[in-house]
Each structure stands twice: as structure tokens, then as C-alpha cells.
Amino acid sequence: MKFFVDTADTKDIADLAATGLIDGVTTNPSLIAKSGRPFADVIAEICALTPGPVSAEVVATDYDGMIKEARKLAKIASNVTVKLPLTLDGLKACKTLTGEGTQVNVTLCFSANQALLAAKAGATFISPFIGRLDDIHLDGMDLIHEIRQIYDNYLFDTEILAASIRTPNHVKLCALAGADVMTAPPAVIKSLVNHPLTDKGLEIFLADAKKAGIKV
Ligand code: E4P
Questions:
Q1: Low-confidence ranges of the chain (pLDDT < 70)
Q2: How many angstroms is it from 179 CA to the middle of ligand 1?
Q3: On the CB side of 26, how many CA atoms lie within 13 Å of its CA?
Q4: How many CB atoms lie within 10 A of CB 147?
């Protein structure tokens, strides 16, 4: 499973990219706004930090506007993936842009039928939002299972990019469900390494090594 980091904080991205565990980055207008920096500058800087796909979202809602913004975004760097909302205009724009060879991430997916439409529109990635479904007392993971089955039934090559990941358990369940990619905030990705028995075991090993005077 590929790991994307969901942030527009370039310091966090640089830290995680240095681990070699990150395959790409996703941003959205809320994350860009939080960075407090100009949109194009942030995206260009992120694209230089990782060779993987970097999702940059349009803010237009009509087809012509989305195409215009998408072409502008795609010019920033060769690894920009244009992020489009799951609307009819968004799907129409997805078809046009992927037909021209631009990578597209169709975002704000909350149903299996929406994911089916995105695959038919040639989306490179579909982003089902797990946490936001959990927030309204649905099981976000059911959606990942449904999309996996539909895409496998028809051999769609659109990648399932599980988004709105809030916990380490979400990551594990997405991996078990066969999501191709997951995107999560830096803190969630960093927390995956934690286990109290690892800490306790290391403490004991180091204490024994010190007692015995072991030097490597
Ligand atoms: C993904 O592309 C989105 O930016 C993100 O995962 C949304 O997460 P949230 O629901 O926690 O805001």
C-alpha cells in the first residue's frame, strides 16, 4: 500500500520524505489555507520535496473553470495530480484531463456509485473519505470494501486512495481491505511505529548491554 501524507506543511513533508516511507502528498484548499502561503508556491515546494504524486485541488466548480485551473496547476510541476470534486462537472473535467495525460484525483467520494462514475471517467485516483463517514455514524471502511469489489469486478485501474484517515486502526483496516493508497496527517503516519512492548523491550536490551559492557 502506498503512503501519501495529507498536509501542506512543507517542514512535515520534508521530515517524512527523509524516512523514505512516503510515496506522495495530498493537499486540499483547507490545508493550503492553514499554511498561510500562496497556493502555487506551496505546491511547487512540495513537488520539489517528493517525486511522487502531489494532489492540488481546483476551486472552480464549473467545467470550463476547472479545466482552466487544472491546466495552470499541471504546469507547476510534472508530478502535480489535479484534484477535482465528485460532481458531474468534475467528472466531465476528469475525462478531458485524463484523456490529455494529466493525472486526476477525484475527491469527496462518499458512495460506491460515485466511485464507479469516477472510474468510468478515467480517474487516476478515487478518494473515499473514511473519517467523515465515521463522523456521521456510518462505517467508512464498508465503502473501501465495496469500491475494491467493484473495481476488481470490472478491472478498473483507478487506484483507491483512502482519505480522511484519522487513526492507526484506519490504516490497518485500509491495508486489509486492499486500498491501493492511504493518505493521513503526519502525526497518524508517525504514530504507526509506536508499540509499548517495543519501547519496553529496547529498554531491557539496552540495560543488559550496559551491565555487560557490550560495545558494537
Ligand atoms: C484527502 O485528500 C483529504 O485532504 C483529507 O484526507 C480530508 O481529511 P479530513 O476529513 O480529516 O479533513
A1: none
A2: 16
A3: 28
A4: 27
pTM (two decimals): 0.96
Q: What is the pLDDT of residue 43?
A: 98
127 CB less than 6 Å from ligand 1?
yes
Q: CB of 186 closer than 6 A to ligand 1? A: no
pLDDT for position 93: 98
CB count in 10 Å sphere of residue 48: 13
Q: Whose CA is nearest to atom 9 of ligand 1?
A: 164
Give the closest residue (by CA) to ligand 1 atom 10: 164
**Collapsing DSSP states into helix, strand and coil, what is residue 26?**
strand
What are the boundaries of each domain within the chain? 2-212
The CATH class of the 2-212 domain is alpha beta
Catalytic residues: 83
pLDDT value at residue 131: 98
Predicted pLDDT of residue 153: 98
